[in-house]
Every structure is written in C-alpha cells, then in structure tokens.
C-alpha cells in the first residue's frame, strides 16, 4: 500500500528534497555554533569576573531576549521574503558575534551585543518555520521534517555541551566565538545556494515599500496574540506546546537531584543527558511507527503520559530508575511536541505564520523559564525529588485540560464540516 511504503521510507525521505537539506544543514551548523558559544561565554565571563552570578546572567541572556523578540520581530517573516530575511539575519549575527570575540571587549558591550544577537534569532526562526511547509508540502513530509529537526538538534546540543568544555581546553573563548561567527556565514551561504527565492507572503506588504514602521511591528505582535487566542484549535495547541515547560524542570534540578541521591558530577551528566536521549528516541519512533492520520489524535494522550514518569519521582527512585523515568518523559514530550507544533503551523495561513510562530516560540521560552523557577522554589521548600514530582503531576492535570480542549475543537470542526457537506448536498 502507498501509506505503508511511505512509512517504510522512514524519516530519510525528507532528505530527497534539496531545499530541506539546505535548511536542515544551515540550522544544524548554527545550533552547534550557538551551543559552543554558550559554553565559551560562561567560561569567558567567569574567567574575567570570577563571579558565578555574572556567568549565570550572561548565560540567561542567551535565552531571555527571545521572549520579546518572538512577539515583536516574528512578524518580519510575514513582511519580507523569508529566505532573504534569514540570510540578512545570519550575516548580521556573524558581524555581532565577531565583535564579541574581540579581546578586551567591555562586559556591558558584550552583554548588549549578545541581547541583539538573541533578538535577531526570533525573525530567523519564524521565517524558517514558516518556510518549511512550503518546502515539504506533500503528505506528512512536513511532520517528518519536524521530527528530523528535533532529533538532530537534540543530538547536536547534547554533543556540543558534552564536547564544548573539552574543546575549550585547546581553544580560547574568543576563538570559540569566532567559530560561531563563521557558522552564521556558512548558514547564510547554504541558504543562498540551496533555498529557492520566494515572494513576500503578504500581497499588501509586497506592493508596499517593504519597510514596516515600529508602530506597525508592535501592532503585528498584538494582532498575532489575538489571532492565535481567538482560534480554539490553535489556542489549545499553543497551551499544549507551552506545557512542555513542566517537563523541562528536571534539567534545571539535575544537580540537586543527583546530590540528593548521593551522586556526583557523573550522575548530573547522566540525568541531564536522559531527556535529550529520550527526545531523540521518542521523535523517531512516533514519526516512524504511527500513521500520519492518527498522530494529531494522540497529542493530548502523549502530553498526559509525559508527566506520569516525573510524578513517579515522588517515590525517590534510585539513579538508574530516575534516568529511565526522565528519558521516558523526554520521549513522550517530544513526540507530542513535534505533532503539536506541526498541527499549529498547518492550522495557520501562510501569510500569518511568521507572527504566529513568534508568539508560540516566545511563550515556550517563558513557560520553560517560569517552570524551572517554580521547580527551584519547590526544591528549596521540600526536596528535588518532590519538586520534580509536583511539576510532573501539574503537567498531567494541565495537559488533560488542554488535550480535552484540542479534542473538542476537532469535534466542532468536524461537525461544521459535516454540516457544510449536507448543505452542499
């Protein structure tokens, strides 16, 4: 059967599309450079100041500006040609990161440049996410492409974090930042050579000068929020995506959790690797084994299942069992996240995807940060195992509510479709 042959082709079928290979390769190079830069910045700042607080602040700056950038700048992906926007952003980031590598750069200037670099990542990511459905329009190729991106990004991040420290034994932090700058240039070249030029997605903008005033950009952000929240399907999917925040809490508590079990640095590393390892396996198996037509129906169930292993940590399991439980959460959470993100993008018209993706990405960053903060406070009050368990249980309850809302939205849509078919008949 055709469906069986498609599944047999596995995830590798997306690599037959040259444009996907270019988008995937450019992203992979950038992700590896970014992760190396995060390690390098922590070493650089701590070595210069001797302050763990300053090192933590600079590390946080590699994430937090995305909260603002996604809402305010995601709309640029709907106002400009997406490939060209990605190339310009890559080149700008190469220049800024190159400036950060200059020896003796004042700390305030380093932080300022870093904020701008992270802000620029938002329109780049929105443009890429909006472009991907056009590159993979056939069947479930888009979902497979999302799964491939998730698997490889997790693998590269895990590898970069584990090898980044070793690499910095032979490279200076400035040289590592220089490599990150080169990665952005390489990404821009790959995009220019491998991705076809497309027109601006919004006709009204295409006929204008292409330059959006600052007030219009702010309005774009507000419109995007209203647009997403007014649609029951996208609203429920957005909630499910953001609820992943509950399931990343263990990563933030890996050190105190391992200590509570009597483990040392090796135990911390194994616990932190559990989620990415489970994520790779979960995304692969879900996309490889579950038929495309069934995947959207499983989003809510998988979201609930993702919290159950963490809730079991209330029993204070030993290290091997804890690693297994965290890996299971990573597998279930990534499986539902890949499909929820894909369904969200598919439910959004092409001309609105940049803004919608920007809102979703900003909320995801905020949810992860707030959940980790909550987990830390709970761990201080009770214990790390209890904190992980509470966050897992909270994820189960919240996912059940959001999953029901997603199911109900699907039922209402099917009812409306059936009514329309009867009228036409």
TrEMBL record:
The record's section on Gene3D superfamilies has:
MFS general substrate transporter like domains
The answer to whether UniProt assigns keyword Transmembrane helix to this entry is yes
Keyword line = Cell membrane, Membrane, Transmembrane, Transmembrane helix
TM stretches of this protein = 52-73, 94-121, 166-191, 237-258, 264-286, 298-317, 323-345, 357-379, 385-407
Q: Which InterPro entries match?
A: MFS, MFS_trans_sf
Q: How does it sit in the membrane?
A: Multi-pass membrane protein
Ribonucleoprotein found in the keyword field: no
* Compartment annotation: Cell membrane
CDD domains the UniProt entry points to? MFS_MefA_like
Q: Which Pfam families match?
A: MFS_1 (PF07690)
Q: What is this protein called?
A: MFS transporter
Query: What species is this protein from?
Result: Pseudonocardia acidicola
